[in-house]
Protein: Fructose-1,6-bisphosphatase, cytosolic
Amino acid sequence: MDHQADANRTDLMTITRFVLNEQSKYAESRGDFTILINHIVLGCKFVCSSVNKAGLAKILGLAGDTNVQGEEQKKLDVISNEVFVKALISSGRTCLLVSEEVEDAIIVPPAQRGKYIVVFDPLDGSSNIDCGVSIGTIFGIYTVKDTAEVSVEDALQPGSSLVAAGYCMYGSSCTFVLSTGNGVNGFTLDPSLGEFILTHPNIKIPKKGKIYSVNEGNAKNWDEPTAKYVENCKFPQEGSAPKSLRYIGSMVADVHRTLLYGGIFMYPADKKSPNGKLRVLYEVFPMSYLMEQAGGQAFTGKQRALDLVPKKIHDRSPIFLGSYDEIEHIKELYAESKENGA
Ligand SMILES: O=P(O)(O)OC[C@H]1O[C@](O)(COP(=O)(O)O)[C@@H](O)[C@@H]1O
Ligand SMILES: [Mg+2]
Ligand SMILES: [Mg+2]
Structure:
């Protein structure tokens, strides 16, 4: 047993240590945020182990119910939702929860309330669960002044009011990516320690990218700027190389690759779904917050995504997010089509 190596492992930057360091920068902090993040991390570890043994544990397939989105819920959608609702309420640091899998906002019992609102997608990429392709969990964190009178309206804040956001990807390795407003950091789960260790410090997305990510199956219903942008990816001007298409169909996995490699992920509006598919509060906002914190951009086709103010907790919005220059190009195409009166 190499005791020295083991001893050295004690100075690894775990996520708890990292968040505690972050918190120590705020004189008024009492550790509430660290406790909240620890409960989210606990939920992710639980879901990760469930996902890894899903086939064995017979938790693949449908749960038999339909959620507020009209989607057939997978067993892991329901299990993940229960895990996070319980973990977040038992943290004693939340007052309101919004989950993709629950129609109404969950108001935490007064005795267990804290100042944070958590919006979350307990299991993202549900269509990929049964074939073992990467899936994830997405979350955003807001604060509220008066927890005593908290109501669903308190969750309908712009994305720019988020105090933190992140996701956990259940893939070949389990990766937790977090921003508390000072850049983006990635942590990998060390199964032998059961700890998330800092492996991707201060993630910065490349300014340009060689990859575009979109469900081309919707192409015939796209608007002109989207069609033009994708056309340009495939048939670029003289001297530029065509981009590669990568589409996993799990937002967490497609955005994680985009964050690390650069490029663009988009779920645009189309004639079939004029507001796109992805949900503002617990998909679009957290990923847009992370993208901006990493030096990228997030655009709806009309405005900066984080400036949106949702009217309902399950609102959807078109979204283009990724490398700074790629989003600039999309913005120009939308401005052009607006000038042409489209
Ligand atoms: O199959 P489509 O239409 O391309 O949609 C894929 C998108 O839908 C989602 O699966 C929606 O998320 P959920 O799985 O959480 O419902 C995203 O992860 C993904 O980006
Ligand atoms: Mg999702
Ligand atoms: Mg989901």
In short: The two ends are 69 Å apart (CA to CA).
